[in-house]
Design a protein that fits this description.
The protein is of the alpha+beta class and about 140 residues long. About 25% of the residues lie in helices and about 35% in strands. It has a single domain, classed as GTP cyclohydrolase I, C-terminal domain/NADPH-dependent 7-cyano-7-deazaguanine reductase, N-terminal domain (GTP Cyclohydrolase I, domain 2), CATH 3.30.1130.10. The two termini are about 25 Å apart.
Length: about 140
Amino acid sequence: MRPLSSRNWPRIRFLLLESTQYHNNMSILSLHSLELWTRIGVPEIERATPQRILVTLHMEVKEGAGKSDALKDTVDYESVYTRMKILAKEERKTLERFAEDIASTLLKEFSLESIEVTLQKFILPGTAAVSVTISRP
């Protein structure tokens, strides 16, 4: 799959969604390339202005919605998106801290079995992105 160009896609990307079978009675609900703006970086000057971060989430959820077709049996990804925007308002020094904050918050507030969080930051010249990926049960 080729990378998404920010010129071709709207800023709200939570509509890029897939759900695939995973374990027994589990599915993976994924949000791809969700765009957030946050103040992040070790040097103060880097945190002076918000930076674009792309977030990809893979959330393991119970398979209930596949059978019932009811929102109550799955994770409301618009609520996840809204929560992520709130988390982005906090200033941080590292991508790792931001990824941990996302994972722990979403695991606590939503009915998730596990989560994988990938963050991409576009700060280093000569690279497409710098990224970190964490997985939490």
